[in-house]
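Dear colleague,

As promised, here are the two records you asked about, laid out in our usual form so they can be pasted straight into your sheet.

NAME FIELD: protein one
SEQUENCE, THEN STRUCTURE:
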Amino acid sequence: RASRPCSSDRARHVMNFAQSMGAKPGGDADTPLRSVQIDGQVVMKIVKHCTEQSPALVTGQLLGLDIGATLEVTDCFPFPNAPTRATAEADLADADALDEGANYQLEMMRCLREINVDNNTVGWYQSTYLGSFYTEELIETFLAYQENINRCVCVVYDPTRAASTGTFGLKALRLSEKFLKIHKAGEFTFEKLADKSISWAEIVCEVPLKISNSALVSAVMGELTKEVASEDVAGVTQSDLDRLSMSTNPFLEKSLEFLSECMDDLSAEQQKFSYYMRQHARQQLIASQWMTKRKQENAARQAAGQELLPEEDDPNNPAAKSASEPSRLEAFLIANQVNQYCEQISDFSEQSLQKLLLVSGARKEETA
């Protein structure tokens, strides 16, 4: 995935912040999380931070309250940008920067607590590029947060989608309970997946996201909307005109390019698993032949009154040297990413066709 954005440095910073938290698990673990309610001011902060730093990937902390089946996000603050190092000698400096980032987070939360602002960590937000967020770093960060917070969420914002398609690309994600049970049990193997009946779509689930505003903010927004409408005789604003943009090539080209790369990655994962299955079948055949030969030797030794040789516990048994099964997590994440690209290409293509039909109809009326 060379051309797709890499988020390893950003993930290391977020995981370091998560591990430094001393928060107790919040919320009722028995109550399922049904929705995330986020304040409008928080949404503006997230959009501003992600858009200003685009195309660089950024993260920040989400603060709020975990009440019943709803997770309320009432405030947020950005994380320091990850340092970019050109040489391997800077590893020590990177570690120091991570510690400084964790101290920054704790100091920021202390300052918020002093001014009576909600300082309970409920998750984090991050920017993405064309929906490329289904990575192992995302899972590792979730697991790091989950050690202290039972019901943490990740809010993902895609500034490129908002600029290209005019849609608000904001999502709230969390790990599914099925995946957490499999992860606690150990390896992510085919046998465990079949036992739990989990599919690729059940690793990360999307939580309904609701944007709420106070009565005062709603009143101010209503007044601003009236002023904008009164200034324009036709009642059309600039944002309405932006939605009629006919430029479709850059977004579709990049999405199809990333989709092609994901299909190559998925094919490589399938070949890796197929190679393991062939090696496993060959190993089983060798072990069966070895066991047959050993039983014949033991039968001859028993007839001669000699001591029998070990069979199952013999270190020379080929069955004891079988290769470990590769993890299926990467393949499942790639399948999720492929589905994400297909959905956004389908949505964008549908909107583009509707605009093209609208323009063609308008031109026909002009010529008539």
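NAME FIELD: protein two
SEQUENCE, THEN STRUCTURE:
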Amino acid sequence: RSQTMGATSEDEGSTGDALDIVLYLFVLGPAVEWCLKSPRVNRGRPGSWRGVSLAVLLLALVAAGKMAWESGTREPNHFETLGVRVDAGTAEIKRAYKTESLKYHPDKTDDPAAPAIFMRMQRAYETLKDPSSRDAYNRFGGKSGDDESGGMTGAAMFYAIWLVLGYLLTMGRASEDARTWAFSGLLALAVVEYQTRVLKYDYLAMVLPHTTVHEKLELLHRLFPPFLHGSRMISQVVFRDIGVYNKMLVEQMHVKVDELGKLAYATQREIAKQGIARPSGVAAPLAAAADGFAKLGGEKAADAAVGAAAPSVARASSGAAVAGAGAESAADQEAAAKQAAAREAAAREAA
């Protein structure tokens, strides 16, 4: 009978894993993609926080509903049937069985459900009264000691399946962070499961005292698919392609350099038309730089920019001409003053 129950539980677990794969891969996967990329939801900005919030809410509702349905439909485990903790000893389990079985013994009550409850208590006591079978039931969900390798094989299949699915669902540069997070979470879950099943460290004993280790690990297994999809969403939102960003900056720099070359060539041609001499001294390097930008911009592009740059260049040329005229007037006045001073000195000598 226990072997039949173990086989049934194993078949139910395999069916649940298959349903999880179908649900998250073919139903929730496309739904999450729609939430992230729909223009109606994201208002023209794919991957906005509005879409992410809707996707997270969808995943949370589905995960909560699925776990609530599983918790409501599953039968109570042997510890819950007898009302003892998973770390209870043999004497405590025996006392609890005697107390509870008297309440539901067919000879002691007329409740029509009492025979079924009494039979369930007998099965629970038969499993829990022996320390080795109790430990196997706690860690592997009712499997006997001979089926311990089978329980480890089932756990290994879970990690193998989600390792492959996690890699396939996180392909692409935008999901590189999600792949790292998902594999780190899967590795952490594997470490916890190893320590719990093999090393017998029950980290959640204080939180869920009547729940077996097997049921706690199954709960963590059910939470991994939403964690994987949440990682994908966050990774796609925060992803920034550094290569594309740097390429865009370089292209913007090239555009500005071309515009500067066109403006320099237009300025040089306008100065040549005005007949202004090329600068010397400190301004000579600036003129050389202008020549370089002119060559970089190209004559055709510069000719097209001459018309647009002509007003500003004309103003600059006019200012330069006025400054030059002012300088010439000052030099003439200084020369005239020197000539007048020389004539006065000659007149005094003659007198």
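A couple of things worth noting about protein two: The chain has 13 helices and no strands. Residues 1-10, 299-328 have pLDDT under 50 and may be disordered.

Best,
R.
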